[in-house]
Amino acid sequence: MRPSNEPFFWAIFSAGGMIAAFLLPVLIVITGFVVPAEGIEFDQLDNLFGFWLVRLVIFGVAFLGFFHAAHRIRHLLKDLGLRSSATPIAVLCYLGALAGAVWAAVVVI
Amino acid sequence: MTTEAMTATQTVTLEVFRYHPDTDTEPSYQSYEVPYREEWVVLDALNWLKDEVDGTLSYRWSCRMGVCGSCGMMVNGYPRLTCNAFLREFMPGPIRVEPLRGFPVERDMVTVLDDFMEKLTDVKPWIIREEEQPIEEGEYRQSPSQLADFKQFSMCINCMLCYAACPVYEHEDEFIGPAALALAQRYNLDSRDEGNAQRQELIWSDEGIWDCTFIGECSTVCPKHVDPAAAIQQAKVEATNSFFISLLPFTPPGMGR
Amino acid sequence: MPGPLPRTKSNDWWNRRWAYRLVLLRELSAFAVAGYLVLLLLLVASVREGESAFADHLDVLKNPLLWIVHAVLLGLVQFHTSTWFRLVPKAMPLKLGGWRVPGELLIAGVNGAWLAVSVIVLVIFLVAA
Who contacts C9 (Cβ-Cβ below 8 Å, separation ≥6)? Predict the structure, then answer.
């Protein structure tokens, strides 16, 4: 029996799930509601995103979050009956996550 | 239930799944009126039917007390032990009784168990020792805390309600499934057992724990509170730790296998 | 002789019970996670580009449609958070010395940590920057 490569993806899925659970709700409140209500000025955001550690955290959240979502969607599609195309689905999902992660890197660098 | 309601409802309708392998190509449903008694379970109603109305009705049962694990059926679409599914839960009815979902049907509510039995054997649910301790050295001792580590997972009665509740097993023929994986974990966690490595190849494969997506209904329907979903997730954590440790160029202290 | 009835497979499992529908919603929250990350990165990119790009982006964010989008995303992501935390004691039961931490206590602890982290992030954005 072939050893599974799932531990690798599952580890990223779990880490991403945990990070998303902790950080995304408050981030949505800030960037979706406080920012458009002009509760935060441009200078504040510029200051914050000018700090390399903040940008590294944003990249980490995006990288892990995209792979978390990709892994979950991949298995959801499988559970909804697309088992026969499991491999192309997996490739597509992870490629999508990779594209997201590369874009995140471009944004923060 | 009030006295008036009890006297008003004298009977209840059972819609029973029927399939005879010699004559039928399609299953059908047959409706029966069964006397309603507050203390009757669905199994009592089926036994009354078989004794009084239709002797051809086929189903498995034995202990009538939630221990033997043989009377599992779908009751109104939900996997239950029919010996602890009271008629009064489903009043005023009708009550639909079907064989457990996800298994081939031998006849009526009798399912074919070969697939599960094979998978159960494959996970080696027994204590494996590299070397048996001589009898004169006495029994393998275990502390209450070591017992508590696996006791919950050892309560399984192989009733297969968890398989009937598992959408992954429904779709994936190769998936080992909740009960067998929980039992593998039960022996892996047993301080007397040394068979972890022998079980790993199968348990840690794609058809083992990795097909599970933590839907969690296996644990909800379990009449013995085994919590197979928890057993599987814990095995995933172990498999993942071991995967990353194996990538290290050295073996961390205490992690050798 | 037809023989045993083969096992049946159907794709409607998610619509059989509320427990399954909620699991489906839990899994669908992955789309909200990915979708919000795209919105977050667009915001960060506009800030990095400069004040006028940010002003343009702010105009878009003020559109009521995007308020609704963010509200839906928040609901789904919050559902991810609460379901994720509920499963923590199952996947990672905690043993301190010989004491098995009760599942509900562990969940409460994780939720407390989540609240603290949320407040810290808010403070960083509102005060520290």
Answer: B170, B171
Beta carbons of B210 and A6 less than 8 Å apart: yes
Q: What is the distance between the alpha carbons of residues C28 and A79, in angstroms, rounded to a whole number?
A: 12
* A87-to-A75, A78, A82, B167 alpha-carbon distances in Å: 11, 10, 10, 20
Nearest to A1 among B201, B213, B240 (CB): B201
Q: Which residue of C has its CA nearest to A80?
A: C11
Is 60 exceeded by the pLDDT of residue C30? yes
pLDDT digits (tens, 9 = 90+) for B115-170: 999 999 999 999 999 888 888 988 899 999 899 989 999 999 999 999 999 999 99
Instruction: List, in order, residues 6 or more apart from B133 with CB less than 8 Å away.
Output: B140
Kindly state the average pLDDT of the residues B237-253: 85
Amino acid at C62: K
Q: Count the alpha carbons within 13 Å of B253 in the hemisphere toward its beta carbon.
A: 0
Q: At what angle do helices A86-108 and C18-49 cross, to 10 degrees?
A: 30
The C-alpha of A1 sits at a distance from chain C's nearest C-alpha, in angstroms, of: 25
SS3 label, residue A105: helix
C-beta separation of B224 from B157 below 8 A: yes
Rounded Cα gap, residues B160 and B158, in angstroms: 5
Answer yes or no: is the ipTM higher than 0.90.
yes
SS3 at position B33: strand
Q: Measure the N-to-C terminal CA separation of chain B; round to a whole number of Å.
A: 59
More confident residue, A38 or A25: A25
The pLDDT of residue A81: 86
pLDDT score of B9: 59
Pairwise CA distance, residues B246 & B225, whole Å: 34
Q: Taking CB atoms and an 8 Å cutoff, what residues of chain C touch A58?
A: 40-41, 44
φ and ψ at residue B8, rounded to 5 degrees: -70, -40
Q: Which residues pair with B41 in a beta bridge?
A: B86
Tokens for A4?
């599974």
Show residues of chain C in contact with B217, CB under 8 Å.
Answer: 17, 19-20, 23
Contacts within 8 Å (CB) and 24+ apart, B83-88: B83/B41, B83/B43, B84/B41, B84/B223, B85/B41, B85/B42, B85/B43, B86/B38, B86/B39, B86/B40, B86/B41, B86/B42, B87/B12, B87/B34, B87/B36, B87/B37, B87/B38, B87/B40, B87/B41, B87/B42, B87/B44, B87/B45, B88/B1, B88/B38
Mean pLDDT of B109-116: 95
Please, how many CA atoms are within 13 Å of residue B227, restricted to the half-sphere of its CB? Answer: 15
Distance in Å, alpha carbon of C2 to nearest chain A alpha carbon: 27
Find out whether B182 and B231 touch, Cβ atoms under 8 Å. Answer: yes
> Residue A107 is which amino acid?
V
Global pTM value: 0.91
